[in-house]
Request: fold
Amino acid sequence: MTGMRAMRASPESVIGGFSIELPSVTRERCTLTTAVPLQLVGISKSFGSVQALRPMTQTIEGGEMLALLGPSGCGKTTTLRIIAGFETPDRGSVVIGTRDVTELPPNKRGLGMVFQSYSLFPHMTVGENVAFGLKMQGVSAAERTTRVREMLALVRLAQHEDRQIHQLSGGQQQRIALARALVTNPSTLLLDEPLGALDKNLRERMQFELREIQQRLGITSILVTHDQEEALTMSHRVAVMSEGQVVQVGRPTDIYERPRNRFVAEFLGTANIVGGTVTGQTSERCWQVALTGEPGASTSVQSDVPLAAGSAILLAVRPERIEIGPVVAGTMRAQVQDVVFRGSYFAYELRAPGQDVPFFVHSQSRKDIPPDGMVGLGWRPDNAIILEDTP
Amino acid sequence: MTAAGLALPVRRRRRVRYGVIALAFYVLLFLGFIAAPIVSVVAVSFSTASFIAFPIPGFTLRWYWRIIEYKPFVDALIVSGEVAVLSTIFGTLLGVPAALALARSRATAAAIVSNFLLAPVTVPAIVLGLSLLYFLSSLSLGISFTALLIAHTVAGIPYIVRTVLSVYRAIPPDLEEAAAILGASRWQTLVHTTLPLVRPGVFAGGLFAILTSLDNLPLSFFFGSAKTNTLPVVMLSYMENQFDPSIAAVSTVQMLIAIVVLLIADRVYGIEKLTS
Amino acid sequence: MTAGSPLADIDGKARRSRPYRLAGPSWIIPVLLFLGFFFVIPLGANILRSLQSGQATTNGPLFYYVKLLTDAYYGGVIVETLKVAAISTVLCLIVGYPVAYFMVRFAGRWNAVIVFLLIAPLLTSIIMRTFGWRVLLARRGLLTTQLFEWGLIPRPLNLADEPFAVYLGLVHVLAPFMILSITAVLQKVDVRLEESARVLGASALGTFFRITLPLSLDGIATGCILVFVVTCGSFLTMLLLGGGKITTLSLLIYQQFNVTQDVGFAAAMGNTLLFIGLICLALQARFLRRTGVKS
Reply:
């Protein structure tokens, strides 16, 4: 594995024991495949009376990895299966490059797929598994051997060619599944929760490895996952889905720093939600908001869009953006319930009067807490995210 | 807890031990009971006496030679073998595709059809034989090898369908989807992925169908003729007329054939995989 | 950062839903045709024949069935069939349950060996096994000579043509099926349930009757119905070991087949047998459904 590559990570992710924020990644043009864009045009799907997917239109650029992120039942797996061809949408089209593939069976779409349980053929060796797609394409035995060996070298399992599948560890099986998917030079790579079965350390390593391979080959990819860290680490863009529709699409930083609504804010990392009423405008982009649940406490928010005085709004603040300090009149205060050391930061759990759910604050250093446990909470105005939900 | 209280559990445990030993003894006796008739037949097949007598007066192989001399035995053995193998092959060709189509369907019709395919095993063979004889006679197929074959195929289908259904249901559908994504057409997926994985079920069911067919008297009885007698039918009529240890010899030979078939299946396939 | 693009409301082209499946429904057709033609129709024709041929045309369609049920001899045969089946079922249960219990609770690694020994007889023909009982029970048979030597019988008797021999033969063939049906269910009865009963003060026998037995009822029911149905349909054992003293319905069919020209009557006998079997199956389905078990 080559050294540090520029990578996207949520501020919570740990590299070397401290949080770092890295500049966004640059997409590489590949040398092996021409990057082919994928378009979903108005696809929707119902199963019986359940609408699994509402009309969805997305374009995935050539060479880009888009993550479909959401809880189970949100429609992400349905979308993937429609792209793969295992389900036909009720309406809409799937276009790969310039070809409308919606009516084509899965074996004619030129895709590669890594399944959640790897789906390696148990009755074949590693080499036979990886060679399967080439064999179906009618590639000669000699060429098959060469390409299989190349691909096994890419995933660093060259010496395992003649092993049986059950002899491999989970991580190795995962890499074989990837090699098998890529050896046929597919136009698009589909990943269905590929890292779910691995343990934490292995998962983190594989996240980086998968990303590196995807970018080196420049292959258009779609990743389905319910793990927000995975989505943020590996992909160029994330589409957050809920109940059959895409709630928000954007780059990982954008989604994380500027979630549209409560669902997205809470799905990606911890979000402290607080409600308030707009009292007035203080400057060109700043408004004053009186916080509910605590008379007298107020905060300022920034907004490009004018806010109506007297309107109720919902704010979200990330745990790492909140500062704990002494109680200051006119600002929010809370009582410390618990503090946990998480290795790279301290996690404080606090209860604020008028709030029924606890607040979480992450701090690099240990804070001095007064005996009665009451502290003041503060954050920069531009770190308060205005959510679209009505409180 | 007093000392007396401590003593009780120990005593109870020892009593249970005796119970277990007694039970084990009983099981051993039972297994002996199961083995006894079979062992006696094998023993009698070597007896020099031409009627059943114990203790065995002397040792001889003449009853085994009798098998070869008595033409109906040899003919019937061949007919039995042919019918068993052919009916199982047909049963497989008919039953396996159906089992594959039904195994994963959640429609209620699928459950009904599955049960229907398993139904022939619940009909008393003698009733099935009777009905088929009359019916096939009206088609002028009457007493013929074809009729025998048809009857045994009908009887064998449930065994094959049952095992293939259960084996196929245990295979994750992902595997076939993976094959499809990799470019395999339906036929290629079937040949390279599904059938190799389903093979244990086909083998197990087929083995059962062959063994049942070899032993099926009630069905074969109705189609009996010089050319279409199966071994059980011939053995029975022999027993009703003459009663000498030839029967023992033929039975032993039949048992040996079944054992050989099982051993071949084990060598080719592995019994552990069949008993899954 | 777009929410869903403005194009999200596009309704795409309508399509016919076709999930990707390997084996289409058309694969079922050959076997359905085969069984329909060579299984359903013959049995159906059999029913018709019993209602429409021979004396049924002159004396009414149910003539043969009435005759079967009311005639002293034939009615007796039916009763005998049911009686023999019931007795053999009970015997198999009594003989087999302890073996099943031992296999599941105490056998450990010997379990596989015992299963093998129970299934191995299937490699031998039923004629061989029945013949084996003749060998053991004949006048100079192994068992008879032993019993004589031990002074249990006054003189060497032919025991092989008695009802006792028939039951011996039936239990010999069918007890393994009963045992395997019971073990399948008994394996799922948690040992800890029995242990807690013991801890709570129940005796070993009391635990068995109150806890183990009720929980293994499904296996008992499955095994009993299996043995009952198979016994109803079997005739070889009665033929070879009964000495003419036990006549069941299937034996009657076998004997009458070559003798009678009355196809309608033979058909009616067969249908009665079939009917008994179907009732048992229905009972099984009803019983298992009530106890909430999917067979």
Observations:
- Residues 1-32 of chain A have pLDDT under 50 and may be disordered.
- Chain A touches chain B at residues 84-86, 105-109, 111-113, 115-117, 119-123, 132-133, 136-137, 180-181, 184, 190 (CB under 8 Å).
